[in-house]
Amino acid sequence: MSSSIISKLPLASDEHLRAHDDRCSICWGQMLSSSEDGEARSTPCGHLFHEKCLGSWLRRRGTCPLCNANLVALVLRGGQDDVEENDTEEENLSDGAED
Fold first, then answer.
1. Which residue among 24, 45, 53, 64 is the active-site one?
2. pTM higher than 0.85, yes or no?
3. Residue spans of alpha helices (H) in the chain
4. What are the tens digits of pLDDT across the range 18-54?
5. Is residue 9 part of a domain?
6. Is 24 one of the catalytic residues?
7. Spatial CB neighbours of 56, under 8 Å, sequence gap ≥ 6
8. 94 in the Ramachandran plot: left (φ > 0), alpha (ψ -120 to 50) or beta?
9. Nearest C-alpha neighbor of 51 from the set 62, 40, 60
10. In a domain, 98, yes or no
């Protein structure tokens, strides 16, 4: 399942990577558009990871390693809009009160 989720995530552009000077938060390796750890992928919540690292993470958990957004659900629904609508495991434990 993780490989099908990863393949649906957009590749991070060289421009995006240069602008953010990101490191993969899973392995702490430098993010390049292409490396031995695979291409950099952008999650619906806006975080960047090596595709290999994210694939390993998603085999254990279905959430973003940084913000805990439910990546599997977001990718399957095909939208980023839901990230702001209480789509994390932590928020799912709340009392459900609406603002």
1. 24
2. no
3. 2-8, 14-20, 51-60, 71-77, 89-92
4. 887 778 889 988 887 666 556 888 899 888 999 899 9
5. yes
6. yes
7. 2, 26
8. beta
9. 40
10. no
